[in-house]
Structures are given as structure tokens and as C-alpha cells.
Amino acid sequence: MNIVIMAGGMGSRLSNPNKPLVNVCGRPMIEHVASVVSAFGKTYVATTVRHTEVINWARQHGHEVLITSGTSYSKDLLESLLTVGAPTMFVPGDTPLITRELIRKFLTMAAYVTSPMITLMYEKDGEVGFTGISLVKRLELMHGIIPWTSLVTPWTTELLNVNTQEDLKLALRLCKHE
Q: Can you give the CATH number for the domain in which 14 is found?
């Protein structure tokens, strides 16, 4: 299976275009993500040409780089998928507390789903949100999109996606309690 770490966002809410390289728990967020997901397959880093520091980090750590347009998460996901093929799991590069156990549980649940794509979502305070974690079993487009099934899990700190200064403060606080 291919693993694509998505690292091409603008980082505007965090005021840092190289957001995946922000240190959390003593190392760049993307480094933690890569160390967790590399056990599940060949790892790629999807980013844009404007993120030269992310590109350099990925190459220095032995990951192939997929250059995407940076138009949107879903468009970059599809561009990456067309390059590496299926099956591919997509994981955000800014989830510094993600664990192998969480990924293993997701893949186990996804094994029972027949949809071409399975997306992990979370429920928190009565709201459902995207985690950015998806598994594409096969490339099958319907009206320009890949049909998918959502698996919903209760929110845990493992799913923390660092998008804002508040998210970063929470991640750093959680590091101290590990």
C-alpha cells in the first residue's frame, strides 16, 4: 500500500507555510507522522513547489515527493492518487499525536467496507468533522469524485490536526503529559 502524507497547505491560520515542519514534542510534526505511517507501506510526501523546506525535508528523510497544484486538499489528493495509484492511504502532515494503533484500527475497519474510498471522520461535541485520513482502495470516479464511505470515531487527541495557534498550544501542552 502507498502512504501519502499531505503537506501542501498554505498554513495561513498558523502563519507558517511550512506548517508540517513546526516542532511538536521535540520534532517536526511531519516527522512524527512519517514514523507512524511508514510501517504500513511506501511513504510519499505531497506538497507544492512553494514549500521548498518541506521538499528538502522529505528528500533528506528518504521520501519521494509528489508535487501537486495546491488548489485544495481534495484536488491534491486526486493528483497524488493519479501518480501513485491505489491502494493509497492519505494522512495529514500536521497530526503530530497520531499513533500506529489509530491507523491500524482505521485500516481494520476499512477492510470491511467495499466503497472505493473510506474516510475517517470524528465526532466531537455533537459535531462531525474530517480527520484528513482516507484510504483509497481503487480509483473509481463517479461524476468527477471518488464514491466514499465515512467511518466516524469519537474524537481523541490522536486526531488533533494543528491548524491554528490554539491547536499548536494544545499539542504542546499534551506533549508535556505524555
A: 3.90.550.10
